[in-house]
Design goal:
Length: 494
């Protein structure tokens, strides 16, 4: 089956996500769909998968114009979408997962387990697999769960498979298992769209590439004609340094340390230390307890045993608000559940962490709110329409950017925000009956207190409250150029 998408346009409110995009895929071809977060990859594939409908443009399958109003219609046309978050039920055997929503039944209405097992086994034989259809999914490693998803697509007679970041949670040996299956599918004339940010994997497994940037198709061709540096340049619009980075900087004082931190059954006896001036990587596979560990450090969960230290001082963090006040920030893995509120606008999501500071007389100061967000939008290059558009109108990458930000220094605070704060302080002082001749001094004092609340460099150092963060940087010979902070709530991960 040959696919051609031509002139695809899609907007969410005033945010133009796809701008006359073209995409092609032939049978037996593995095509990499590449681009930065927010480039429009997911939107384009969601249109092909029937999740979204384009504003304009057309989809051609074997030269015939098609329109998909639902995922079911796309699947009926032979297109299967395997999402990054696998849709398998661990407490069911493989064969039942294969037929979820399409269960085979006997004439009496009971499930025909025998037929489902036989058809599952037939697909496995086609793929050269020795999996037992009756094996429980929870007993499979991550690579075989991915392979079960692929097998399910073939069971539904898919002639084209869209794979969204299929290797994100896999080890190298597991990736090789999946790649072996993809090569078999290529030989069987199945077309595959391979969405990934791992350029070395693209070079290994893909035949062709298409690159989106800012909703526009900017490059396409054969993988054998390009290098990883070429692909990276197409994605970002300029040359990208791909060699190993080394700052040569000496690490500074201890910032965060964990000693024997435990929360059964998710993690136990965790020890780690992060120092100023270093990036500490914590890695592992899905389900290994990383998310639960740092959620607990941030106060969203409890720690049953062990000690947490900030700047050498023991702390007991019981809430996310307390963690924020102590200078901690947390960007959760599961953005949809823990990072954004879908029913709120871009503006509301981007500033929600600061609402308490933005309150005046019990009401949210919208002037200051918008001024703060405009600063964040510019610094993070958020691609969006109107600030009052729904957060869901943004791509996943731009949603992630929205959950970041705050002011760094006095110079970063917008002039209109300072003026608004000065006006409120003046009116409040006069209303309190203060003598007019001393009101300017009172106002300046209240402005200084405001700066200490909203400006990082003027906030007290947690280890020595008599010293500001800015003073600390001076003493250690460092300089703060940017930072981000976020508060998240509790919720189940996908």
């Amino acid at each position: 089956m040959k696919l051609k998408m031509d002139g695809i346009c899609k907007s969410f409110g005033s945010n133009e996500v796809l701008k006359s995009v073209g995409f092609q895929l032939s049978e037996g071809e593995i095509c990499a769909l590449l681009g930065e977060n927010g480039a429009g990859k997911s939107t384009l594939m969601n249109i092909l998968g029937g999740v979204l409908q384009p504003d304009s443009g057309e989809i051609l399958l074997d030269g015939q114009k098609r329109k998909f109003d639902s995922p079911a219609q796309s699947l009926d046309a032979g297109i299967a979408f395997i999402h990054q978050e696998l849709n398998l039920i661990n407490d069911l055997p493989i064969y039942e997962n294969m037929f979820i929503g399409r269960e085979l039944k006997k004439k009496n209405g009971l499930l025909d387990h025998k037929r489902m097992i036989e058809e599952t086994r037939r697909v496995f034989e086609r793929m050269g697999l020795t999996l037992d259809p009756k094996e429980m999914v929870r007993n499979l490693d991550a690579s075989y769960k991915q392979i079960v998803e692929i097998s399910r697509a073939l069971l539904m007679n898919a002639k084209m498979i869209i794979m969204d970041e299929p290797t994100t949670s896999l080890t190298d040996p597991e990736i090789e298992k999946v790649f072996a299956i993809l090569r078999q599918l290529r030989e069987q004339k199945v077309g595959i769209v391979f969405i990934s940010h791992k350029l070395r994997e693209v070079m290994e497994i893909c035949d062709s590439y298409t690159v989106l940037r800012d909703g526009v198709m900017v490059a396409s061709g054969s993988v054998k004609d390009v290098t990883t540096s070429d692909l990276a340049r197409f994605m970002v619009g300029h040359d990208v340094r791909t060699e190993k980075l080394g700052t040569g900087a000496q690490r500074g004082e201890e910032r965060l340390s964990l000693h024997g931190v435990t929360q059964e059954p998710y993690f136990r006896n965790v020890d780690l230390t992060a120092y100023a001036g270093e990036v500490l990587g914590v890695t592992g596979l899905l389900g290994d307890g990383r998310s639960e560990l740092f959620s607990a450090v941030f106060g969203a969960e409890t720690v049953s045993a062990g000690e947490i230290r900030l700047c050498g001082n023991p702390v007991r963090i019981t809430s996310t608000w307390q963690a924020k006040q102590l200078g901690l920030a947390y960007v959760p893995r599961n953005r949809k559940e823990n990072g954004i509120i879908k029913d709120m606008s871009i503006l509301e999501n981007g500033t929600i962490v600061s609402w308490r500071e933005l309150m005046r007389h019990g009401l949210l100061d919208h002037v200051r709110q918008r001024a703060q967000f405009e600063k964040e939008k510019a610094a993070l290059h958020i691609k969006m329409g109107g600030e009052n558009d729904s957060i869901t109108s943004l791509s996943g990458g731009n949603q992630q950017k929205v959950v970041l930000a705050k002011w760094l220094s006095r110079e970063d605070v917008p002039a209109d925000v300072v003026e608004s704060e000065r006006r409120v302080a003046t009116e409040k002082s006069l209303a309190e009956g203060k003598p007019e001749k001393i009101v300017p001094k009172i106002v300046e004092g209240r402005l200084n207190a405001f700066y200490k609340e909203v400006v990082l460099l003027e906030q007290p150092f947690v280890k020595d409250p008599s010293k500001t963060v800015g003073k600390l940087f001076e003493e250690v010979g460092g300089k703060a150029v940017a930072f981000a902070r976020i508060e998240v709530g509790k919720g189940e991960e996908e």
